[in-house]
């Protein structure tokens, strides 16, 4: 009976040690699970902050693109008006050559002025068009970044 008691005590001690070992493992796993939850929450917050920042940048770039488009349209109109003015000056110049109007020097000065205005508008138009193209490229980059964020979110949800 003593041997059986000793054997049972030995088994109980082993089971207690095993139980304590398992309890330690459970505590460690619970702690690790809590750390992973905290880490995941932080990553989620960081991702949300990044998405919000990207959305703000997208809105800003959209405003810039709209402004550039508006500016380009105005410059096209001004360019068209200057073309008409240049044609009028050319016509006046031809009329002066045939002796119907004011001096040739005034017409030449008007034509030069129109040409300078036209060149200024063309230069300004080129700059606005470059800004518009740059804005469109930036919008494309942001769209690709947003697609990547969607993929990251899908991978995170699948990993849970």
Word description of this protein:
Helix 1 (2-97) runs antiparallel to helix 2. With 160 residues, the chain is an all-alpha fold. Helix content is 95%, strand content 0%.
> For the report, how would you describe the main beta sheet?
none
Helix content range of the residues, please?
over 70%
Percent in strands: under 5%
Instruction: Note the total helix count.
Output: 2
The helix-strand sequence is HH
* Morphology: rod-shaped
Average pLDDT rating: 84
Number of DSSP-assigned strands: 0
Span between N and C termini?
54 Å
Poorly predicted sequence stretches spanning 5 or more consecutive residues: none
Radius of gyration: 39 Å
Backbone structural class = mainly alpha
GO biological process, one term: positive regulation of protein localization to cilium
Coiled coil: 23-92
InterPro entries: ENTR1
Family: Belongs to the ENTR1 family.
């Amino acid at each position: 009976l003593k041997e059986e008691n000793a054997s049972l005590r030995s088994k109980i001690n082993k089971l207690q040690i095993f139980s304590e070992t398992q309890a330690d493992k459970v505590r460690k796993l619970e702690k690790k699970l809590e750390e992973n939850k905290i880490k995941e929450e932080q990553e989620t917050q960081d991702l949300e902050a990044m998405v919000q920042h990207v959305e703000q940048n997208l809105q800003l770039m959209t405003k810039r693109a709209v402004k550039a488009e508006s500016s380009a349209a105005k410059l096209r109109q001004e360019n068209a008006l200057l073309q008409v003015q240049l044609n009028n000056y050319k016509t006046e110049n031809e009329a002066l050559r045939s002796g119907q109007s004011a001096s040739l020097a005034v017409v030449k000065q008007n034509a030069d002025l129109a040409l300078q205005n036209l060149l200024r508008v063309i230069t300004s138009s080129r700059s606005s068009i470059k800004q518009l193209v740059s804005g469109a490229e930036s919008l494309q980059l942001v769209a690709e970044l947003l697609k990547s964020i969607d993929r990251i979110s899908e991978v995170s949800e699948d990993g849970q």
